[in-house]
Amino acid sequence: MSAPPAPPPDRSAPPDRTDSAQTEPTRPLVRRARRARMWLEPGLGVKRWIFLFVVCTFVGAVAFLHFTWTGPLHPLATKWILWLNQFAEPGVFPLYAVGMVVMALALAGALYSITMISRAMLRGTGTAPETAVNVLYERKTLSRGMRVVTVGGGTGLSNLLTGLKTHSSNITAVVTVADDGGSSGRLREALDMVAPGDLTDCYAALSESPALARLLLHRFGRGEGLEGHTFGNLLLATLSEERGGLGTAMQDIHEILKVRGRVYPATTRPVTLVAELADGRTIRGESRFAEQIRPSRIERVRLEPENPSALTQVLEAVRDAEMIVLGPGSLFTSIIPALLIPDIARAVRESPAPVVYVASLMTEPGETDGLSLSDHVNAITRHLGRTPDWVLLSNSKIEPAVQRRYQQEGATVLTLDGAGRDLRGRVRFAPLIQAGTARHDPQKLAAALMQLWDGPPRRFSLPGQRD
Questions:
Q1: What is the 3-class SS of 172-238, one letter each residue?
Q2: Cα distances (Å, whole numbers) of residue 358 to 280, 284, 414
Q3: Fold annotation for 145-176+266-454
Q4: Where in the chain is the domain with CATH 3.40.50.10680?
Q5: pTM score
Q6: 18 Cβ neighbours under 8 A, 6+ residues apart
Q7: In angstroms, rounded to a whole number, what is the distance separating the alpha carbons of residues 171 and 148?
Q8: Per-residue pLDDT reduced to its tens digit, 385-414
């Protein structure tokens, strides 16, 4: 797979000293010309109104001329024309040229006044006039992007959303809400609500404002009752309490946060994640998995209470999706729990959209120890009832120092073993790793998914091969 396109050159960089004197005075004019040209880009819905304005102005001018020449203003119109005639010069500047100059000045004045009115209105709404065309162009372009539903939770999902929002605004994140530890667990127990932590991360990832994203993720380091909580978690808890539930508060949340896309909990009912192990034991509560699973392994996970309902908005998004992405994230605690909602699982099974599983880079200590990629896919198939159409796996090498750091915590690189040849035709390799980490690069991952959406790749890769 080809790497994502290089970023555009920094046009704000200073020009060479040799021509700086010539370039500097023209910069404002060049920037204005570029902005003016952008208003004429296809898809903005502006050119039709410019055309209508020109036509109406011409018709209005002709009608006004007819009115003044045939109506009670005829004497005044005659004096006006005679006054203009004094500026004419036969053979050099004829009468019709005088009229054209006056008409051009009048049109320029009208356009200037409309521009200033628009700028004043934009400033009143908090939008910088200089960036209005860029914002409009970006939103129009993103509104035509892929309709994608992402399923999961944790850092993996928020990373994915960070990359996807640069390609589309038609994003629906379906977030697992079974966490029972940390700030989420405390709020869940105190207010009988779903865990808000992963929802907060997704809202921050889709936020158009970096300042708002930082605010949502701010974690209080002191204060009785506040220490350990993030502002975003408290905001979601407040809206859930005020509106009588998180489900009814979702529209308010989206309007307040102005995110690029939609974020929904997999269910609005507080649920507990239960793991059934190979040795017959049962563990209740996600926060206990890592410590209590070993030396056994997970056979199946389920929710208590069973058969929680899903939001209507989630089911509609799945039905309308052009791609459904599972992960990246923890297999048994982030991805599969959302697929245990019967309505969501049924909608995904019946959807004509391709289902893409973004494989983790490392195993989860105590959760997926010793599992290969084919084991991951089999677990998804077993719980969902549908095998992913695509499996996206990174072929970038994790730096040895990073691997050693993870190995000290009990994590190893996820591999595609011999049994993985059963996945032939489904696996797609791409360089997805963020340099110096064992995490997916948001932009590389989004670019790989967009390539899958644009059309099936010409060939697939198996271990040992490279794109």
A1: EEEECCCCCCHHHHHHHHHHCCCCCHHHHHHHHHHECCHHHHHHHHCECCCCCCCCCCEHHHHHHHH
A2: 30, 27, 12
A3: Rossmann fold (3.40.50)
A4: 145-176+266-454
A5: 0.76
A6: none
A7: 5
A8: 999 999 999 988 899 999 999 989 889 998
